[in-house]
Amino acid sequence: MSRAIGILGGMGPAATVDLMARLLAATPARRDADHLRLLVDCNPQVPDRNAAIEQDGPSPESVLVAMAQGLERQGADMLAIACNSAHAWADDIQAGTAIPLVSMIDATIAAIARDHPQARRIGLLAADACLGADLYQAPLAASGYDVLLTEDQPGFMALIYGVKAGETGAVARAGMAALAAGLVARGAEVIVAACTEVPLLLGAADCAVPLVDSTDALVHALIAEATR
Considering its fold, how many domains does the chain have in total? Predict the structure, then answer.
Protein backbone atom coordinates (compact mmCIF):
# COMPACT_ATOMS: atom_id res chain seq x y z
CA MET A 1 0.00 0.00 0.00
CA SER A 2 1.37 3.40 -0.96
CA ARG A 3 1.79 6.29 1.42
CA ALA A 4 0.10 9.68 1.10
CA ILE A 5 1.99 12.66 -0.30
CA GLY A 6 1.34 16.14 1.06
CA ILE A 7 2.15 18.89 -1.45
CA LEU A 8 2.84 22.48 -0.48
CA GLY A 9 1.68 24.27 -3.60
CA GLY A 10 0.40 27.49 -5.06
CA MET A 11 3.90 28.79 -5.86
CA GLY A 12 2.63 29.11 -8.53
CA PRO A 13 -0.69 27.34 -9.09
CA ALA A 14 0.08 26.21 -12.65
CA ALA A 15 3.32 24.58 -11.53
CA THR A 16 1.42 22.78 -8.75
CA VAL A 17 -1.11 21.40 -11.22
CA ASP A 18 1.78 20.34 -13.47
CA LEU A 19 3.38 18.40 -10.60
CA MET A 20 0.11 16.63 -9.82
CA ALA A 21 -0.49 15.75 -13.48
CA ARG A 22 3.00 14.33 -13.82
CA LEU A 23 2.60 12.26 -10.67
CA LEU A 24 -0.56 10.77 -12.11
CA ALA A 25 1.05 10.12 -15.49
CA ALA A 26 4.16 8.50 -14.03
CA THR A 27 2.39 6.21 -11.58
CA PRO A 28 1.83 2.67 -12.93
CA ALA A 29 -1.93 2.26 -12.54
CA ARG A 30 -4.78 0.36 -14.14
CA ARG A 31 -7.56 1.67 -11.87
CA ASP A 32 -8.24 4.54 -9.49
CA ALA A 33 -7.05 2.59 -6.46
CA ASP A 34 -3.59 2.10 -7.99
CA HIS A 35 -2.85 5.84 -7.89
CA LEU A 36 -1.14 7.72 -5.08
CA ARG A 37 -3.09 9.68 -2.51
CA LEU A 38 -2.28 13.38 -2.87
CA LEU A 39 -3.10 15.98 -0.24
CA VAL A 40 -2.54 19.39 -1.80
CA ASP A 41 -2.52 22.83 -0.22
CA CYS A 42 -2.45 25.10 -3.27
CA ASN A 43 -1.97 28.39 -1.47
CA PRO A 44 -1.19 31.34 -3.78
CA GLN A 45 -1.07 33.62 -0.73
CA VAL A 46 2.37 32.36 0.37
CA PRO A 47 4.53 35.50 0.63
CA ASP A 48 6.76 36.05 -2.40
CA ARG A 49 9.96 34.04 -2.02
CA ASN A 50 12.01 36.36 -4.21
CA ALA A 51 11.09 39.44 -2.18
CA ALA A 52 11.76 37.60 1.06
CA ILE A 53 15.26 36.50 0.04
CA GLU A 54 16.02 40.06 -1.05
CA GLN A 55 14.68 41.26 2.35
CA ASP A 56 12.11 43.32 0.49
CA GLY A 57 9.06 41.46 1.80
CA PRO A 58 7.80 39.20 4.60
CA SER A 59 9.20 35.73 5.12
CA PRO A 60 7.00 32.83 4.02
CA GLU A 61 8.36 30.63 6.81
CA SER A 62 5.34 30.66 9.13
CA VAL A 63 2.89 30.13 6.27
CA LEU A 64 4.89 27.23 4.82
CA VAL A 65 5.27 25.55 8.22
CA ALA A 66 1.54 25.92 8.91
CA MET A 67 0.73 24.40 5.51
CA ALA A 68 3.03 21.46 6.21
CA GLN A 69 1.51 20.89 9.63
CA GLY A 70 -1.98 21.00 8.16
CA LEU A 71 -1.06 18.39 5.56
CA GLU A 72 0.46 16.21 8.28
CA ARG A 73 -2.76 16.43 10.34
CA GLN A 74 -4.77 15.42 7.28
CA GLY A 75 -2.77 12.19 6.96
CA ALA A 76 0.24 12.95 4.76
CA ASP A 77 3.10 10.50 5.29
CA MET A 78 5.64 12.71 3.50
CA LEU A 79 5.88 16.25 2.17
CA ALA A 80 6.93 17.85 -1.11
CA ILE A 81 7.19 21.48 -2.16
CA ALA A 82 6.06 22.39 -5.67
CA CYS A 83 8.58 25.24 -5.80
CA ASN A 84 12.37 25.24 -5.87
CA SER A 85 12.79 28.63 -4.19
CA ALA A 86 10.61 27.68 -1.22
CA HIS A 87 13.24 25.07 -0.35
CA ALA A 88 15.16 27.95 1.21
CA TRP A 89 12.81 27.28 4.15
CA ALA A 90 13.00 23.48 3.93
CA ASP A 91 14.82 23.14 7.26
CA ASP A 92 12.09 25.15 9.01
CA ILE A 93 9.38 23.00 7.44
CA GLN A 94 11.16 19.81 8.43
CA ALA A 95 11.73 21.06 11.98
CA GLY A 96 8.03 21.83 12.32
CA THR A 97 6.77 18.39 11.26
CA ALA A 98 7.36 14.76 12.12
CA ILE A 99 7.17 13.42 8.56
CA PRO A 100 9.96 13.53 5.95
CA LEU A 101 10.29 16.21 3.32
CA VAL A 102 11.35 14.86 -0.07
CA SER A 103 13.66 17.55 -1.44
CA MET A 104 13.28 18.69 -5.02
CA ILE A 105 16.81 20.07 -4.87
CA ASP A 106 18.34 16.76 -3.76
CA ALA A 107 16.29 14.84 -6.32
CA THR A 108 17.42 17.10 -9.15
CA ILE A 109 21.10 16.96 -8.25
CA ALA A 110 20.85 13.17 -7.96
CA ALA A 111 19.24 13.05 -11.43
CA ILE A 112 22.12 15.05 -12.92
CA ALA A 113 24.70 12.67 -11.44
CA ARG A 114 22.73 9.55 -12.37
CA ASP A 115 21.67 10.41 -15.90
CA HIS A 116 24.60 12.57 -17.07
CA PRO A 117 27.71 11.29 -15.28
CA GLN A 118 30.14 12.84 -17.79
CA ALA A 119 28.72 16.36 -17.57
CA ARG A 120 30.72 18.94 -15.62
CA ARG A 121 29.27 22.29 -16.78
CA ILE A 122 25.70 22.91 -15.70
CA GLY A 123 23.50 25.67 -17.11
CA LEU A 124 21.11 26.73 -14.36
CA LEU A 125 17.76 28.38 -15.03
CA ALA A 126 16.57 29.45 -11.58
CA ALA A 127 14.59 32.25 -9.95
CA ASP A 128 16.18 35.05 -7.97
CA ALA A 129 15.26 33.53 -4.60
CA CYS A 130 16.65 30.12 -5.56
CA LEU A 131 19.92 31.75 -6.60
CA GLY A 132 20.01 34.09 -3.61
CA ALA A 133 19.63 31.15 -1.23
CA ASP A 134 22.39 29.24 -3.07
CA LEU A 135 20.12 26.20 -3.26
CA TYR A 136 21.79 24.70 -6.33
CA GLN A 137 25.10 26.51 -6.77
CA ALA A 138 26.60 25.37 -3.45
CA PRO A 139 25.81 21.63 -3.68
CA LEU A 140 26.70 21.51 -7.37
CA ALA A 141 30.04 23.23 -6.78
CA ALA A 142 30.71 20.91 -3.84
CA SER A 143 30.18 17.97 -6.20
CA GLY A 144 32.71 19.35 -8.68
CA TYR A 145 30.41 21.00 -11.21
CA ASP A 146 30.89 24.37 -12.88
CA VAL A 147 27.65 26.33 -12.75
CA LEU A 148 26.65 28.79 -15.46
CA LEU A 149 23.86 31.32 -14.91
CA THR A 150 21.92 33.13 -17.61
CA GLU A 151 23.27 36.54 -18.57
CA ASP A 152 19.71 37.89 -18.67
CA GLN A 153 18.27 37.15 -15.23
CA PRO A 154 15.74 40.03 -15.45
CA GLY A 155 14.49 38.59 -18.73
CA PHE A 156 14.24 35.16 -17.13
CA MET A 157 12.23 36.51 -14.21
CA ALA A 158 9.90 38.34 -16.59
CA LEU A 159 9.16 35.01 -18.29
CA ILE A 160 8.56 33.30 -14.94
CA TYR A 161 6.13 35.97 -13.76
CA GLY A 162 4.53 35.77 -17.19
CA VAL A 163 3.79 32.08 -16.63
CA LYS A 164 2.11 32.97 -13.34
CA ALA A 165 -0.08 35.36 -15.34
CA GLY A 166 -0.93 32.66 -17.90
CA GLU A 167 1.58 33.62 -20.59
CA THR A 168 2.78 30.30 -22.00
CA GLY A 169 2.47 30.92 -25.73
CA ALA A 170 4.96 30.84 -28.57
CA VAL A 171 6.67 34.12 -27.69
CA ALA A 172 7.30 33.07 -24.08
CA ARG A 173 8.49 29.62 -25.16
CA ALA A 174 10.89 31.14 -27.67
CA GLY A 175 12.23 33.46 -25.00
CA MET A 176 13.00 30.62 -22.60
CA ALA A 177 14.54 28.55 -25.40
CA ALA A 178 16.80 31.49 -26.25
CA LEU A 179 18.01 31.70 -22.63
CA ALA A 180 18.81 27.98 -22.67
CA ALA A 181 20.62 28.36 -26.00
CA GLY A 182 22.71 31.16 -24.52
CA LEU A 183 23.87 28.84 -21.75
CA VAL A 184 24.71 26.12 -24.27
CA ALA A 185 26.70 28.62 -26.34
CA ARG A 186 28.80 29.34 -23.26
CA GLY A 187 29.57 25.68 -22.72
CA ALA A 188 26.73 24.20 -20.68
CA GLU A 189 26.56 20.43 -21.14
CA VAL A 190 23.26 20.07 -19.29
CA ILE A 191 20.47 22.59 -18.72
CA VAL A 192 18.69 22.39 -15.37
CA ALA A 193 15.12 23.67 -15.13
CA ALA A 194 15.50 24.75 -11.51
CA CYS A 195 12.20 26.61 -11.35
CA THR A 196 8.88 24.80 -11.62
CA GLU A 197 7.59 27.35 -14.15
CA VAL A 198 10.43 26.64 -16.58
CA PRO A 199 9.05 23.27 -17.82
CA LEU A 200 5.81 25.03 -18.71
CA LEU A 201 7.82 26.86 -21.39
CA LEU A 202 10.81 24.62 -22.10
CA GLY A 203 10.94 20.97 -23.09
CA ALA A 204 13.75 18.58 -23.95
CA ALA A 205 13.19 19.18 -27.67
CA ASP A 206 13.89 22.88 -27.15
CA CYS A 207 17.44 22.29 -25.90
CA ALA A 208 20.55 21.31 -27.83
CA VAL A 209 21.86 19.50 -24.72
CA PRO A 210 20.03 17.32 -22.17
CA LEU A 211 17.45 19.04 -19.97
CA VAL A 212 17.12 18.01 -16.33
CA ASP A 213 13.66 19.00 -15.14
CA SER A 214 13.34 19.56 -11.38
CA THR A 215 9.62 18.74 -11.42
CA ASP A 216 10.30 15.44 -13.16
CA ALA A 217 13.09 14.62 -10.72
CA LEU A 218 10.77 15.25 -7.78
CA VAL A 219 8.02 13.13 -9.32
CA HIS A 220 10.28 10.09 -9.54
CA ALA A 221 11.66 10.62 -6.04
CA LEU A 222 8.14 10.88 -4.62
CA ILE A 223 6.88 7.76 -6.37
CA ALA A 224 9.91 5.82 -5.12
CA GLU A 225 9.40 7.06 -1.55
CA ALA A 226 5.62 6.55 -1.57
CA THR A 227 5.78 2.99 -2.88
CA ARG A 228 8.88 1.61 -1.21
Answer: 2
pTM: 0.96
Annotated active-site residue in 42, 130, 195, 207: 195
Beta-carbon-side half-sphere exposure of residue 211 (alpha carbons within 13 Å):
23
Annotated catalytic, 130?
no
- Distance (Å, whole) CA 75 – CA 56: 35
Measured at the alpha carbon of residue 90, what is the angle toward residues 88 and 58, in degrees to the nearest 5? 50
Task: Say whether 207 is catalytic.
Answer: no
Please give the Cα distance from 192 to 108 (Å, whole number). 8
Q: What is the pLDDT of residues 30-45, one digit of tens each?
A: 999 999 999 999 999 9
Q: What is the DSSP letter of 109?
A: H
Residue 52: domain span = 5-103+216-227
Instruction: Answer for the pair 124, 148: CB distance below 8 angstroms, yes or no.
Output: yes
